[in-house]
Design brief:
Shape: globular
Distance between the termini: 10 Å
Number of strands: 8
Number of domains: 2
Helix content: 40-55%
Strand content: 5-15%
Strand order of the largest sheet: 5-4-1-6-7-8
CATH architecture of the largest domain: 3-Layer(aba) Sandwich
Largest sheet: 6 strands, parallel
Number of helices: 10
Length: 218
C-alpha cells in the first residue's frame, strides 16, 4: 500500500457543520430574489460548487444579470446568520488531532478564503492546513481537478499519495479527475448512493468511522 502523505478535506459539510446557517441564508436569499420556494432544495443540492455557479443555475435565463446581486445578497445574509452556525462535526477535532502529527492536511473548498480563515482562526486550526484552496486560488473551481492538483504540486507528490475527503458528488468527481482516491463523508449533504456513483471508493457514516479506518492505513 502506498503511504498517504496528504489528506485534502472539503470544508462545509465535511469538517464544519455549516448547513443550518447556509440553509437559513439560502431561504432568506430566495425570498429576497422572489424565487419559487422549491428553489431552496434545488439550491441545497448544489452546495459544494462556487456560489456564482449556483446562482447562474438557479436564476432563469432572463435574470442572469442578477447573479452578482444574488451572490452579494446571500453573502450579506450569511455574515448575519451563517457564521454562528459554523461548528465542527462531532468527532472532527479528534480526527484532526490524530492526523496533524502524521500527514499533511489541505483544504479544497468552494467557500471564500475570508470565510474559511475566519472559522479556522476561531477554532485555532488555521496553521493545521496548507494549502487552503478557495475559488480565488484557481482558474477552474470544483468539480475541476485544479484544486487538488495545486495541493499535490505544493508537496511534490503523486495522486496515489493523497486522498480527498468530501461530502458532495463535486468533491468525488474532482478527486477522480485528479487521480486521487475519493472518500465520501456520509454526515454531509449528499447521500451515500450519490457519492458512490460519483466515484467514492470508501464511504463513512460518521467521523469516528473515518478515524478508525485512518488508524489502519496511516
Amino acid at each position: 500500500m502506498i503511504p498517504i502523505r496528504l489528506v485534502v478535506f472539503d470544508f462545509d459539510g465535511t469538517l464544519i457543520n455549516s448547513e443550518p446557517g447556509i440553509l437559513e441564508s439560502i431561504k432568506l436569499t430566495v425570498d429576497a430574489l422572489a424565487l419559487p420556494q422549491e428553489t431552496v432544495e434545488q439550491w441545497r443540492q448544489m452546495i459544494g460548487i462556487p456560489l456564482p455557479v449556483q446562482l447562474a443555475k438557479l436564476l432563469p435565463p432572463e435574470r442572469q444579470q442578477e447573479v452578482e446581486y444574488g451572490v452579494e445578497t446571500y453573502r450579506n445574509f450569511y455574515r448575519q446568520v451563517g457564521i454562528a452556525h459554523s461548528n465542527p462535526f462531532a468527532g472532527i477535532p479528534e480526527l484532526i488531532d490524530f492526523l496533524t502529527p502524521r500527514t499533511a492536511l489541505a483544504i479544497a473548498s468552494s467557500k471564500g478564503y475570508e470565510g474559511l480563515s475566519r472559522v479556522l482562526t476561531g477554532l485555532d486550526w488555521l496553521d493545521y492546513f496548507d494549502p487552503i484552496i478557495s475559488p480565488a486560488s484557481v482558474i477552474n473551481p470544483k468539480p475541476h481537478p485544479e484544486s487538488i492538483q495545486l495541493a499535490l504540486q505544493h508537496y511534490g507528490i503523486t495522486p496515489e499519495q493523497a486522498v480527498m475527503i468530501g461530502d458532495t458528488e463535486y468533491d468525488m468527481e474532482m478527486a477522480v479527475r485528479a487521480g486521487v482516491p475519493a472518500w465520501g463523508a456520509g454526515w454531509g449533504v449528499h447521500e451515500k448512493e450519490r457519492l458512490i456513483q460519483a466515484g467514492a471508493s470508501y464511504w463513512f457514516a460518521h467521523p469516528g468511522d473515518l478515524l478508525e479506518h485512518l488508524r489502519g492505513v496511516i
